[in-house]
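S1.2 Input.
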Amino acid sequence: MRSRISRLVTRALRAGGGLPALLALAAPVAGQALPPLPKLPLDAYEAPARAQVEQALAAVEQNPRDAGRNGRLGMLLYANEQYEAASACFERAHALAPAEARWPYLLARAQSNSSAHDAAIEAVRAALGLQPGYLPARLLLAKSLLDAGQTDESRRTYAAIVQDQPDAAEAHYGLGRVDVAAGRAAAAVEPLRRACELSPAFGAAHFALARAYRDLGEMEKAQEQLDLYQKDKLGWPPVPDPLLADVLSLKTGALARLQRAIDLAEAGQLQAAADEHEAALAVDPSLVQAHVNLIRLYGTLGRPEKAEEHFRAAIALNPGLAETHYNYGVLLVGQKRLSEAAEAFRRAIELNPHYAEAQYNYGFLAMNAGRLDDAVQHFQAAIADEPDHRQARFNLGRVYVWQRRYPEAIEQLRLTLTPEDGETPKCTYALGAAYARAGHGDEARRYMMLAREKAEALSFFDHTATTEKDLRALAALPATP
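S1.3 Output.
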């Protein structure tokens, strides 16, 4: 058998068929084993997707050696984010139709999404052997090489793309990522800056550039890039990808639309997120999470009547979700209906005592209502479940100051000084004020001067003026004994 294959390979090369002819030889002969079909948990799919997958699976079982049917099943599984199962189907399709580029390309995509980077490299190279200039495949190869730790080869691949297509923003971004991975922040700046110029809404590139500037100590530039990232976190330069387009068009189920809606909300595209949530509910009106999310979204968009409508729908479907009551509480706070908001947060806490944000918000309302002991209890509960909850520590420190529990106040406020960001001057000032109340003049002066410096650096002029006034008052205090 081995000598027969060798003769066939030699004959194909002499005939001038090249790689396609060789790949054709790889097609399995009748009866040759294929990778097994994946075991599919059909009950886990929502109804519309389950019907599509069942139909595609039945088609494969009727004709298991049809490449198109195997590939179609893989595409449906990929669309439902079942990447490992999709990989098995794409492997079958590639074995049955080795001269068709889309199957190894989609196989590489699925393997990359499953973090099988070495396998993805092999598959995408096979795709590029069939369609050498396909930009999405070249970019996927470079990314997979980087993800697999092959940074030198990844750099060469990205550089070759930039040489051929200088306007490929993703390739410039990739070169920057290679430099960042190698600890070369200074070298990363130029390719990342170029990526941002070519695609101003490229959120990931702005974020990577912010990190590079931060590592170089250029904090003002880092903040500028971070602000641009916040405007469009999910922005990505469009690269036409016909081989993937048919797969993405299959993402029509309610859960897929819900995930898209959540991604849009996280990117700050609130109206588009609300529309996509509504589209998910049109497919499946019982999707309670969509109703829960819309309470918050419509509240932020200034449409309280729609938020109320979805609150009622969520309660009708499942009254025991803490997030439903929490989101409703946030809506009520926005409407200044504070006693009702407190009741909503209280209900969320009853359902989930470890809901840190609900504990914090209830504590904040209690603090503003003068119920300081109640506020302390709920701020402490928030911190117990989320030790990095900065606002809970800040307000707990404030309450301790009002209660003249100065050592405890200072302990909490000290823990709010990091991370270094726009909140730091306020937290530093509050710590200085706590020291002043405790009669520690030297420490009070030190932290208030530090607060002034940080406020000036961030152009917080109003806060700077307040600090100046308090520093003048502190000048009259004796030094700390």
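S1.4 Remarks. The chain is about 75% helix and 0% strand.
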